[in-house]
Amino acid sequence: MKAIVINQYGGKEVLKETDMDIPEIGSEQVLLEVHATSINPIDWKLREGHLQEKLPFDFPIILGWDAAGIIKETGKNVTEFKSGDRVFARPATTNRGTYAEYTAVDSNLLAKMPDKMSYAEAAAIPLAGLTAWQCVVEFGEVKQGDKVLIHAGAGGVGIYAIQIAKSLGAKVVTTASDKNIDFLQSLGADRVINYKKEEFSDVLKEVDFVLDSIGGDVQTNSYKVLKENGKLVSIVSPPDEEEAKKFGVKAGFLWLDPNGEQLKKLSDAYSAGNLKPVIGTTLKFSEEALQEAHAISETHHARGKIVIIMKE
């Protein structure tokens, strides 16, 4: 099979096309023919070597942890899925990811795709959508009437967090540049703060929940807008426990836990019209395309998801 791998840590130029064996599957796995995958910051952070302590993988490494495609084979203990099923997943984090024509996926991490969902849409959901779900629903326990602040609303996680929070009945405030204001309002944001013109911590107060996807001063200033016993979750850097205690808030760091049941809930939300994937860039599977996709992601200013199409 064709795969894009890295044989060393480095810049985007270390992404190389190669031929590899089609993976063998275990009794609880399926062999997925990948029709689309997408790019996430974990991809290039691992490529650059920043995650080698947390994820000490052997080379060659196939990056990518979003997949949408068709099941070609099922393990002997798999009963909920069959060959031919259209499915999507955030596979387990191994050195055999989804920048490949085939990948092995644990069956408990799969969800069936709704009939009207395209492979590109499906590939855009798992990692970012599950991260948003676990932040807003699991950690934040956001409910009707809560006031929610989602930083970087136009990013991969932000677009889903806004929609999930709105579907729960929250009032949603987000930060963005002026070019994304109308776009984020179309997703349901009640207020969009142009971070280039306004300091969010000067204009907000009594917030129930903050999703921090930026870190640094943004994380520090987020404590100022939270009400007592409010919650802050970061997906970029662990919050300072003493700082959180000083402001009387619950703060934590979220590292995504892949989950097929939650992905099914995101699938249901899509079918109900409450969750819309936003795809900013679509590229065809090649070494050059993956290098370009990484470069776009590294700017931190991509709107929506960057999707790689393997099969039309």
Automatic annotation (TrEMBL):
Residues 10-308 form the Enoyl reductase (ER) domain. CDD domains: MDR_like_2. SUPFAM superfamilies: GroES-like, NAD(P)-binding Rossmann-fold domains. The keyword Lipid metabolism does not apply. Keywords: Oxidoreductase. GO terms for molecular function: oxidoreductase activity; zinc ion binding. The keyword Oxidoreductase applies. PROSITE patterns: QOR_ZETA_CRYSTAL. PANTHER family: ALCOHOL DEHYDROGENASE RELATED, RETICULON-4-INTERACTING PROTEIN 1, MITOCHONDRIAL. This is NADP-dependent oxidoreductase. It comes from Bacillus salacetis.
